[in-house]
């Protein structure tokens, strides 16, 4: 049986519609609960089977997609969702993994949604085809590149570079057969990082420099294969991040929150938990975006980060402002988490780990003495796992706020407050 008629019952964690056929779970992209579809059955995967929607037979009203590339580009999965369903989906992405572990927040704040046109970081893929270059996003579950000329979630300054950048790469054979380009919008302008196949010659450097001038880029950097660092080729304006009194240099390719609006929301959530004179530890601190602006309110602020470039950047900013209560140290918290004795020196811990979460550090926190913990996460599953460890150690999940920086994608971020018995409520 190659085709079947099925009814979508709900949405899965990746945003696909979930239907059932003879007891087998089917995953249908770009569908809604309540829709009935004629589908073509695809390959079996872990947990079920993929199916290709062929013909919509009936169902509820759908939202009109904002982008002509929707359905082919893998960047968005949810543009067809009506607003109430979209909001409920994002909240459920966080609450469902918690519920499976018997957890629920004492309070959940309304979701903070970043608006269209706010994404300030775009990671693009490109492939050379003859004399032309395909620049865009990868297709769903594929390495194929879907060229894009528009992106309703991205800042206009980044969208304006899509066509010129593809033309530049087409004229640069030394760039290779394909790679990635990272565009980041900063206050000083656009920072562009390109993968490069081999050391560029004088002609390539001249073209790159001319492109940076023509497009008014702040900086253009190249990263060669096997290199962990990028080489700035053109620096027209030094990219800086201003956090309170600190000006932090932005290393090429460094982590930055996806939208300025999302960063502001996360920083405000952290700030609401900080009391005057507190001693604060910022773990997985990155460039200090969420803690450095609070330096004037605390008696001690200690940043811990594994990335040497980020530690060096924060260190440079601190040296320019001597006398602050801030320190920064390089530490791999996955391999060498802060001990209970080290954590005892702090009143509040800020935790913002990568997608895999912070199991090793959370296991130490479960038995540590600080009474307040702010945990920021971009992965609800690893957060729920870590939250269960904390709950077993006596922490209470007091408050949670969904933060949607990934508009129309299945991903969602969150900010959570954990308190120990005796810790005052937020």
Task: Give the SSE map.
Elements: E1 3-7, E2 10-11, E3 17-21, E4 24-28, E5 36-45, E6 48-58, H1 83-100, E7 112-113, E8 121-129, E9 132-138, E10 145-147, H2 156-159, H3 162-170, E11 178-186, E12 189-195, H4 202-214, E13 219-223, E14 231-235, E15 240-243, E16 246-249, H5 260-273, E17 279-283, E18 300-305, H6 308-319, E19 326-330, H7 340-343, E20 348-351, H8 359-365, E21 372-377, H9 380-392, E22 396-404, E23 413-419
Parallel strand pairs: 4-6, 7-22, 12-13, 17-18, 17-20, 18-19, 20-21
Antiparallel strand pairs: 1-5, 2-3, 3-4, 5-6, 8-9, 8-11, 9-10, 11-12, 13-14, 15-16, 21-23, 22-23
Helix pairs in contact: 1-9, 8-9
Account of the protein in words:
This protein has about 425 residues and is α/β, with parallel strands linked by helices. It folds into 3 domains: about 5-60, OB fold (Dihydrolipoamide Acetyltransferase, E2P), CATH 2.40.50.140; about 85-115 and about 255-420, Rossmann fold; about 120-240, OB fold (Dihydrolipoamide Acetyltransferase, E2P), CATH 2.40.50.1070. The chain has 9 helices and 23 strands. It has helices at about 85-100, 155-160, 160-170, 200-215, 260-275, 310-320, 340-345, 360-365, 380-390; strands at about 5, 10, 15-20, 25-30, 35-45, 50-60, 110-115, 120-130, 130-140, 145, 180-185, 190-195, 220-225, 230-235, 240-245, 245-250, 280-285, 300-305, 325-330, 350, 370-375, 395-405, 415-420. The strands form 4 sheets. An 8-stranded mixed beta sheet has the order 7-22-23-21-20-17-18-19, with helices on both faces. Strands 10-9-8-11-12-13-14 form a 7-stranded mixed beta sheet, covered by helices on one side. Strand 3 (about 15-20) and strand 4 form a beta hairpin. Helix 1 (about 85-100) packs parallel to helix 9. It starts with a strand and ends in a 7-residue tail after the last strand. The relative contact order is 0.11. The model has no long low-confidence stretch (mean pLDDT about 95).
């Amino acid at each position: 049986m190659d085709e079947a008629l099925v009814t979508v019952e709900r949405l899965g964690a990746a945003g696909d519609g979930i239907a059932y056929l003879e007891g087998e779970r089917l995953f249908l992209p770009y569908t809604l609960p309540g829709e009935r579809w004629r589908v073509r059955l695809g390959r079996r995967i872990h947990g079920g089977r993929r199916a290709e929607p062929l013909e919509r037979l009936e169902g509820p009203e759908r939202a009109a997609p904002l982008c002509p590339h929707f359905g082919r580009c893998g960047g968005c999965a949810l543009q067809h969702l009506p607003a109430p369903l979209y909001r409920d989906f994002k909240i459920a992405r966080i609450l469902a993994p918690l519920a499976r572990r018997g957890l629920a927040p004492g309070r959940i704040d309304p979701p903070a949604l970043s608006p269209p046109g706010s994404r300030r970081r775009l990671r693009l893929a490109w492939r050379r085809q003859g004399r032309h270059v395909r620049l865009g996003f990868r297709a769903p579950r594929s390495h194929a590149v879907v060229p894009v000329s528009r992106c309703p979630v991205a800042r206009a300054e980044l969208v304006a570079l899509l066509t010129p950048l593809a033309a530049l790469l087409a004229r640069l054979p030394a760039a290779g057969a394909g790679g990635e380009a990272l565009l980041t919008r900063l206050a000083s302008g656009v920072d562009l990082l390109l993968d490069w196949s081999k050391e560029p010659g004088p002609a390539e450097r001249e073209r790159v420099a001319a492109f940076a001038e023509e497009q008014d880029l702040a900086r253009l950097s190249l990263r060669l294969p096997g290199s962990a660092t990028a080489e700035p080729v053109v620096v027209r304006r030094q990219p800086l991040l201003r956090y309170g009194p600190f000006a932090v240099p932005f290393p090429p390719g460094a982590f930055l929150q996806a939208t300025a609006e999302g960063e502001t929301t996360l920083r405000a959530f952290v700030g609401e938990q900080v009391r005057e004179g507190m001693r604060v530890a910022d773990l997985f601190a990155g460039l200090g975006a969420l803690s450095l602006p609070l330096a004037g309110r605390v008696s001690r602020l200690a940043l811990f980060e594994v990335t040497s470039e980020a530690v060096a950047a924060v260190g440079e900013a601190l040296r320019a402002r001597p006398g602050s209560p801030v320190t920064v140290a390089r530490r791999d918290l996955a391999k060498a988490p802060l001990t209970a004795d080290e954590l005892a020196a702090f009143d509040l811990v800020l935790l913002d780990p990568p997608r895999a979460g912070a199991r090793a550090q959370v296991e130490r926190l479960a038995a540590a003495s600080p009474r307040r913990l702010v945990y920021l996460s971009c992965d609800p599953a690893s957060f729920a796992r870590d939250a269960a460890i904390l709950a077993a150690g006596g922490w209470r999940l007091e408050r949670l706020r969904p933060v949607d920086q990934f508009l129309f994608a299945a991903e969602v971020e969150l900010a959570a407050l954990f308190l120990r018995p005796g810790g005052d409520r937020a």
